[in-house]
Amino acid sequence: MPQFEQTAVFTPLLFWSLISFAIFLFLLWKFAFPPILKALEERTSKIRTDIQSAENLKVEAEKLKLDFEAQLKTAQEKAATIVSLAQEEARKISEKTISDTQAKCRQIQKDAEHEILTSRNQLMSEIRDYISVLTVASTEKVLRRTLSDDDKKRLIDESIEEVLSNLEQNA
Questions:
Q1: Distance, CA of 33 to CA of 111 (rounded, Å)
Q2: Are 131 and 163 within 8 A, CB to CB?
Q3: How is the protein disposed in the membrane (predicted)?
Q4: Cα separation of 95 and 35, whole Å?
Q5: Model-level pTM greater than 0.85?
Q6: Do 159 and 132 meet the contact criterion of CB atoms below 8 Å apart?
Q7: pLDDT digits (tens, 9 = 90+) for 60-114
Q8: Is-contact 125 97, C-beta < 8 A?
Q9: Hey, what long-range contacts does 154-161 have (CB within 8 A, 24 or more apart)?
Q10: Given this model, what pLDDT does residue 2 score?
Q11: Are 152 and 136 in contact (CB under 8 A)?
Q12: Angle of the 149-170 helix axis to the 33-143 helix axis, nearest 10
């Protein structure tokens, strides 16, 4: 077989190729791989550090979120309390205003009733005086004489009683 006969020529070439490859690997392992491995190790370390930092930031963000939610809940509770107190205060003010207004209305009504009663009594007194003068004058004209004080008093009282009874019946 002619193909296998040429292997004798390639044997030294193969030997030197293996030696060259071994030297090349040794040089790579000695000089090239350590910086590459160091760079890979540094990169791995940096990635681990970044991952740990990201996890720490995530935990811190969760804590901040929980704190914020707690503060928000507290603020909402305070706002609800403030609104409740404001509504209660408004209700109290409204009740006080209504009570004050009712008291003023009652006082105005009492004052009006008192004024009406005073005016009525004054009017009745004036009517009584006027009736007594008219009664005495008309009686003196009818009788054509002057009446005694007792007669005047009796006639005035009778006339007043009659007028008052007529007023009460008409009212």
A1: 113
A2: yes
A3: Single-pass membrane protein
A4: 87
A5: no
A6: yes
A7: 999 999 999 999 999 999 999 999 999 999 999 999 999 999 999 999 999 999 9
A8: no
A9: 156/128, 156/131, 156/132, 159/131, 159/132, 159/135, 160/128, 160/131, 160/132
A10: 53
A11: yes
A12: 140
Tokens of 127: 């009517």
The SS3 call for residue 50 is helix
Q: Which contacts qualify for 162-171: CB closer than 8 Å, 24 or more apart?
A: 163/127, 163/131, 164/124
Cβ pair 132, 156 in contact under 8 A: yes
DSSP 146: P
CA distance 156 to 107: 38
Q: Residue type at 171?
A: A
The 10s digit of each residue's pLDDT in 24-70 is 999 989 998 899 999 999 999 999 999 999 999 999 999 999 999 99
Task: DSSP for 4-39, please give it.
Answer: HHTHHHHHHHHHHHHHHHHHHHHHIIIIIHHHHHHH
Q: Fill in the amino acid letter for 40.
A: L
The per-residue b/e assignment along 122-158, b for 16 or more CB within 10 angstroms, e otherwise, is eeeeeebeebbeebbeebeeeeeeeeeeeebeebbee
